[in-house]
Design goal:
five-stranded mixed beta sheet; alpha+beta
């Protein structure tokens, strides 16, 4: 009987241990939930109205890289990966770094088709193109910033005295929403734009609505005209105006990459574990370098550099103050005012 009893006890111990190990190990669903995008980041994600006459729609991020070549001072970078992709773009940091410009392989004055991007469909999706990146910075204690980054292949500038100024290849715009314990508190517009309380902004359901200006794609909280002659000030009219209306409704998160951002290490991690992250580390510019005066494509009003028709391409998402203390993008000793009501 003793050998039989020993075998029974051994089998019982094995089953008990297996049960305990099974409970301790997360299921596949639990593992996915552990790295899932916070639901509130999706539930309160902005929708964007593309201006009705804007020919430059949201663009596929990878296609931008495929249609450009890296240059420094208008010379092709030697030793650059070929082909250049979102998975190796940051290798250029050792081949010129911030001085690298992703330069169009086509003459942009010919308006090649890839500059025009992809028009959102009836559901707001840019089919066949990943046109946005959502970056989540968890500060701890329930404080979370979600950056909704919008990408366009081309920025068409404003017209001043009959001439376009500020055209450039590549255009990163964004909204940022600050959350407290999953509840949206405030939303910031593009660059040095204004900030508003969540309760103040226009919404579809619970999702904020933003307006993308014709050509420049600057995001605003209201439709109509917006003068931005003075940086950081948004006036209803003036010499340099952006124009917004309800043209085509875009849902950026319908075709987006999703990332968490670790401020301590300044690194990104894809929530799905497969989306490219290397391109987010790229230090260079996402477009052509500003053409010199000797380039026949370049024009300036009275020779003033600030009125150049073609300017240099922008930096990428990592340069958008992802660990900012305030909702607003930091400005020189200027307080961040979060307006409780809408204004131009």
């Amino acid at each position: 009987m003793a050998p039989l009893l020993s075998r029974i006890l051994a089998i019982s111990a094995f089953i008990l241990g297996l049960s305990m190990n099974t409970r301790a190990m997360p299921t596949g669903l639990e593992e996915r939930e552990a790295v899932a995008v916070p639901q509130y980041v999706l539930s309160y994600a902005p929708k964007v109205w593309i201006q009705s006459q804007d020919q430059y729609n949201p663009s596929d991020i990878a296609a931008q890289v495929a249609h450009t070549k890296p240059q420094v001072n208008f010379n092709v970078v030697n030793g650059a990966p070929d082909p250049l992709t979102l998975d190796n773009l940051a290798s250029l940091n050792n081949l010129g770094g911030a001085d690298v410009y992703l330069t169009s392989v086509d003459d942009i004055t010919k308006n090649p088709a890839w500059l025009k991007g992809v028009k959102p469909d009836a559901n707001g999706k840019t089919n066949g193109a990943t046109t946005a990146a959502v970056i989540v910075n968890d500060h701890g204690s329930g404080n979370v910033d979600a950056f909704y980054m919008y990408f366009y292949a081309f920025n068409q500038g404003n017209t001043v005295l009959g001439q376009e100024i500020g055209d450039h290849v590549g255009d990163w715009e964004h909204n940022m929403i600050r959350f407290k314990n999953g509840v949206p508190q405030a939303i910031c517009q593009h660059s040095y734009g204004e900030a508003f309380t969540y309760s103040a902004v226009e919404k579809q359901g619970q999702r904020p609505v933003a307006y993308s200006a014709k050509g420049t794609h600057a995001t605003y909280a209201t439709p109509g005209d917006h003068d931005h002659t003075i940086p950081g000030f948004n006036l209803p009219e003036g010499p340099i105006e952006d124009h917004c209306d309800q043209g085509t409704l875009w849902d950026p998160i319908a075709s987006a990459y999703f990332y968490s951002y670790d401020a301590a290490s300044n690194t990104f991690k894809a929530y799905d574990g497969t989306s490219p992250t290397n391109y987010l580390e790229f230090l260079g510019k996402w477009g052509d370098q500003q053409y010199p005066n000797s380039d026949p494509r370049q024009k300036k009003i009275f020779g003033i550099n600030q009125t150049a028709k073609y300017t240099g391409g922008p930096t990428g998402p990592r340069d958008k103050s992802l660990n900012r203390p305030d909702v607003c993008l930091p400005k020189d000793k200027t307080a961040c005012f979060v307006s409780p009501f809408l204004r131009p």
